[in-house]
Design a protein that fits this description.
With 148 residues, this protein is α+β, with helices and mostly antiparallel strands. It has helices at 35-55, 82-99, 101-108, 113-136, and strands at residues 9-14, 17-22, 56-59, 65-68. A hairpin with a 2-residue loop joins strand 1 and strand 2 (17-22). The longest helix has 24 residues, at 113-136. It is elongated.
């Protein structure tokens, strides 16, 4: 799994746990910097965060988890925002249910039925959480479910 992370990330082990982080860093200010320097540093942080959020996608659930999008030339949908992909998948499932119920049944009883079930169970919450995050700029989780 870790051998497939994008080149802009690195993994390391600390205290027996494995972590993944971006290799790229941004410059912060040191000591008593002038206000202009602090504002530039905050802008750099915002840009860094914005670019990182396009690659690391949070997963709604019981813990603070996320996945890293792989950028492959053979996989153009990976360039799209997660909201667009969720919406397109929900739309396709609704099309199958309405226009090809036998095809949907084949998918539901096929080898990938667990994936469709998982998607249908979690996608609505994931969609709402991500939409709220995009609108407000804050991360959303269901209350009282975070683990240390």
């Amino acid at each position: 799994m870790l051998r497939n992370i994008p080149h802009s990330f690195e993994w390391f082990t600390e205290d027996g746990r494995t972590y993944i982080r971006r290799k790229k860093r941004f410059n912060w200010w040191r000591g008593k910097a002038p206000q202009a320097e602090k504002l530039l540093a905050q802008k750099r942080l915002g840009t860094y965060h914005s670019k990182t959020r396009r690659i690391i996608v949070p997963i709604s659930g019981n813990r603070d988890l996320g996945y890293i999008k792989r950028n492959l030339s053979s996989n153009p949908p990976s360039e799209r925002h997660g909201l667009t992909i969720i919406f397109a998948a929900m739309h396709r499932l609704s099309e199958l249910a309405r226009y090809d119920p036998n095809g949907l049944e084949r998918h539901l009883y096929g080898t990938s039925n667990w994936l469709i079930t998982e998607f249908m169970t979690n996608s609505a919450d994931q969609f709402i959480d991500q939409m709220a995050s995009v609108i407000t700029g804050f991360q959303f989780w269901r209350p009282a479910i975070r683990t240390p």
